[in-house]
Specification:
The structure is a single chain. With 75 residues, the chain is an alpha+beta fold. It has a single domain, classed as Translation Initiation Factor IF3, CATH 3.30.110.40. It has two helices and four strands; from the N terminus they run βαβαββ. A four-stranded mixed beta sheet has the order 1-2-4-3, with helices on one face. A hairpin with a 2-residue loop joins strand 3 and strand 4.
Length: 75
């Protein structure tokens, strides 16, 4: 199991979701992806995309405008 951090701060919708989707395609089932974002829409958009595609949101935080989403990849 790998754990990677993916910094998407400064990008606005829909780029955080698209880039997360593309990154997850390169990972293996069971890997953990920590996504860092600044776009408040990502707090809802990325978890919604994960639910549709079967990936698991392990943790979600919004601290002073920095959003951190921890995703368990499931293929």
């Amino acid at each position: 199991m790998n754990r990677e951090t993916f910094d998407l701060k400064g990008l606005i919708c829909p780029l955080p979701v698209i880039r997360t989707q593309n990154k997850i395609k390169t990972l293996n089932s069971g890997d953990i992806l920590v996504v860092l974002c600044s776009d408040p829409g990502a707090l809802h958009d990325i978890p919604a995309w994960c639910r549709i595609h079967g990936h698991e949101i392990i943790d979600s935080q919004n601290k002073e405008g920095e959003i951190t989403l921890t995703i368990k990849v499931v293929h």
